[in-house]
């Protein structure tokens, strides 16, 4: 994948189904040339590889390897948006840029 003049190669290492949380845990390795790719770029590439919706995916951690141009990634692919918003903290959802519905206040 070409990202802003950088090349990124993503290899999925393991996929674990977590049925109680209605999600799939994905561990992958990302190889890059310059800077560590952004979470949104990693989500877009993962979504293509596993046929998931990017708005239902979340990158939990990106751990770079010292002295090398690769990083280990842990991501989750949720099946329903309702489950995602109930389980995951609002700060983490905001960090990834997933839009939430605002609660409607009844007019008086």
Short note summarizing the structure:
With 108 residues, the chain is α+β, with helices and mostly antiparallel strands. It contains three helices and five strands; from the N terminus they run βββαββαα.
Protein architecture, described:
With 108 residues, this protein is of the alpha+beta class. The chain has one domain: RRM (RNA recognition motif) domain (Alpha-Beta Plaits). The chain has helices spanning 39-50, 81-87, 90-96, and strands at residues 2-3, 6-18, 23-32, 57-64, 70-78. Mean pLDDT is 83; it is low at 1-5.
List the helices and strands and how they pair.
Elements lengths: L1 E2 L2 E13 L4 E10 L6 H12 L6 E8 L5 E9 L2 H7 L2 H7 L12
Antiparallel strand pairs: 1-2, 2-3, 3-5, 4-5
pLDDT < 50 stretches: 1-5
- The fold-level CATH name is Alpha-Beta Plaits
CATH architecture field = 2-Layer Sandwich
Give the SSE string: EEEHEEHH
E-strand count:
5
Major sheet size, sense and barrel closure: 5 strands, antiparallel
Structural class: alpha+beta
* Structure annotation, total helices: 3
Arithmetic mean of pLDDT: 83
Query: What's the N-to-C terminus distance?
Result: 52 Å
- Just give the CATH class: Alpha Beta
The dominant shape is globular
CATH homologous superfamily assignment: RRM (RNA recognition motif) domain
Number of domains: 1
What share of the residues lie within helices? 10-25%
Strand content: 35-45%
Q: Could you give the order of strands across the largest sheet? A: 1-2-3-5-4
Radius of gyration: 15 Å
């Amino acid at each position: 994948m070409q990202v802003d003049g950088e090349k990124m190669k993503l290899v999925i290492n393991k996929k674990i189904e977590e049925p109680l949380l209605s999600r799939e845990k994905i561990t992958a390795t990302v190889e890059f040339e310059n800077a560590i790719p952004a979470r949104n770029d990693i989500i877009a590439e993962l979504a293509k590889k596993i046929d998931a919706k990017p708005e239902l995916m979340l990158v939990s951690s990106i751990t770079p390897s010292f002295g090398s141009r690769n990083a280990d990634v842990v991501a989750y692919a949720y099946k329903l948006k309702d489950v995602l918003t109930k389980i995951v903290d609002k700060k983490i959802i905001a960090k990834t840029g997933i839009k939430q519905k605002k609660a409607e206040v009844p007019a008086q």
